Amino acid sequence: MKINSNTTSQSETSTVPYTLGDMEQGAACCIPVPHIEVENLSVAYQGKIVLEDVSLNINKGCITALIGPSGCGKTSLLSSLNRLTDLIPGSQMQGKVHIDGVDVRDPQLDVMTLRRKVGMIFQKPNPFPLSIRRNIEMPLREHGVKQRGELEARVTTALQDVGLWDEVRDRLDTPALSLSGGQQQRLCIARALALEPAILLMDEPCSALDPIASVVVEELIHSLRNRYTVVIVTHNLAQARRVANYAAFFWMTGRVGKLIEFGRCQSLFDSPSHDLTAAYVTGVSG
User: Fold this and answer.
1) What pLDDT, on the 0 to 100 scale, is given for residue 58?
2) Do strands 118-121 and 34-45 pair parallel, antiparallel, or not at all (unpaired)?
């Protein structure tokens, strides 16, 4: 499969602050340095192929949006990057996925270390039925952080990074489930950030939120650019255009998900190379 992409020069990197009004111009591009390299990746469940022959590079410090209709393999691709597909009975992967040159399918690879480096944010907020503080402390303790001072510092920093600190600093020991939906999602992002990942995978992180909470989370996602490599599945094309540096469009071909086009987000929306992409981003199909 031919993957449509474009080159980027350093002079095109922008530091202009993000606002929702940037939708017309699209998110500024970052310097293309591959962080995740996917080559001829296929995923099957119980012998049924759901994603076939996907190849693309996901660049370091950039936001890459995976777009396309439901059922075309976007979440399967996302889950394959930190081997969450291993948790699904009957799942099979073929092809190569390298992160910083390391083969994530290597049988000798410590999967827990991989998932600490490659965090996952799910569609529906999933805080633990514990206090706000313990939601962040528990995974830290599981990964060997025991000192009270370090735990407190990591909790504070993570909550500050997602803009929650001022909202919850006086009630850290209250139940996390008492937070609003948007606050719960930001807490889940803080929980992932506390483990100091390099990559964040996000599976429709705003779809279960109201419009106001969605804007807050979307602005947070945009603020993570350059600090983390972010891969986000979204059905909200306007959101993809606002936050992403790169976009990958998937489609069902013969009941199998395939990558149709990949490249700069603005170029993919404004001048797509494939007729299917053009039809999808203009609302003609999908």
Assistant:
1) 97
2) unpaired
Q: At 66, list the tokens.
A: 């995976």
**6 and 263 Cβ atoms separated by less than 8 Å:** yes
138, with CB counted inside 10 A (0-12, 13-18, 19+), is: middle
Residues 255, 257: Cα–Cα separation, whole Å: 7
- What pLDDT, in 10s, does the model give residues 225-241? 889 999 999 999 999 99
Contact between residue 62 and residue 111 where contact means Cβ atoms under 8 Å apart: no
Side-by-side strand order, sheet with 229-233: 102-103, 91-99, 34-45, 48-59, 256-264, 246-253, 63-67, 229-233, 199-203, 118-121
Beta carbons within 8 Å of 269's beta carbon, 6+ residues apart? 26, 237, 241, 247, 281
pLDDT band at 59 (very low <50, low <70, confident <90, very high): very high
Question: Above pLDDT 70, what percent of the chain?
Answer: 88
Using the predicted structure, report yes or no on whether residue 52 has a pLDDT greater than 60: yes
Q: What's the residue count for the chain?
A: 286
What sign results for the dihedral spanned by CA atoms 31, 187, 66, 93? positive
Strands 48-59 and 34-45: antiparallel
29: which DSSP letter?
B
